[in-house]
Amino acid sequence: MPSTFLEHDANAANGYRVSVGQPGANLIPLFITRRDGQVIYGVAGNNNQHAPRGSYSYTDNIYKKRRTLCDSALGILMLDNHKFMQKAATKMNAGIRSYFKPTVGKLLEGAKTMVLRDARHIANPTSYGRFSASDTTKDNNKTSVFYENYIRRWINELDGEDIAQMMSLYDIFVSCYCRAEKAKRNRDYPTLPDNHLRSSKAYSLHLGFREAWYDDPAQRGRVSKPYGGESSAPGLLPDQLGLMPGRLKSLKRAGVSNDGKGKPRVYQKRSRGIDRNQKDTNVLQANYQLELTQMNLNFSASASGTTSTLLASAYAFSRNMFENSRQGRDIEGLKQYMMGCVAYLVGSGMHTCHEVFYTGNKVDGLNYVTGKYDSMLPISFSGSPEYRKWKDEFWDVHRR
Length: 400
What we know:
By secondary structure, this protein is α+β, with helices and mostly antiparallel strands. It is built from 17 helices and seven strands. The chain starts with a strand and ends with a helix.
């Protein structure tokens, strides 16, 4: 089926007609329909005319809402389609198994600490991609085999297709990696500095995937706002329908299943960054704030620190994706991995795509064009029918 769009036509009964193809360079978003949230394109200057019946003017505020929809659709499509990051996941899972396999001691050494310290993050009742509370324990008196079996269960979960759970585990395993490597360095080279291995945050900062201001409250730029409780809304969308007319219809047109909500998943209720945070320009890093202003970009939780630790995990367990080997750096694999970050963090409502891509841009070979999507998309997605439906729906956002 060919692509279509709504084109302004003052002589048509409703003030617009359905045109085949995609809006030409001379056409810009002029109006948006009230009921379905469909964009009406036309020649610049025609937006001074009366809005077609059942529509209103396309403003900068509408653009930001449409961008929220576009981000959400991308996050949900990634959650629902494991195939778009299959190559990266295969490499990561093999790397994690390989790291733990050579010596059982490496696993036993960190198993108890992982379960008692790190497992709370994947059993938090308001987190995303979580396991049930029965998958963790605060009991300090179990045998080492008990804790080892927990970790083995998590490794086995990597064979599934729940991207949210998979990414949450990647973030746990890099913490284990840092502790194991720090212990090894202390044994083998006790005089060498090891501060970069004290945590996954320190490791990602050391690798250049994170900026120091991410952890500085005076520059982070996010402050708490009155929290409305847990949400089960798709992606970054508000719970109240009236705040974003036609939102689910728009997601459905973009190819999101289940009438725009995405595939049902257990534990979908969660505490979202978009609901908990608001931007404070007085304490937001100046260059980051300038980008948001110039490109009219949304703010959810500031530049993504979790993306940086997930990238550190990828570097720890699948380093060949990052290095210029004989075969070259695996750009497709890196971009697929970024889609895992989008699924986990944007699909959950924690971050916007820009907040994830801003951090991803710190990886050599990933060249994010601020505010644009295509520069960060893997071929696995950009060459698919799902991509065309998504881009057709959000042509107004892509061409901005």
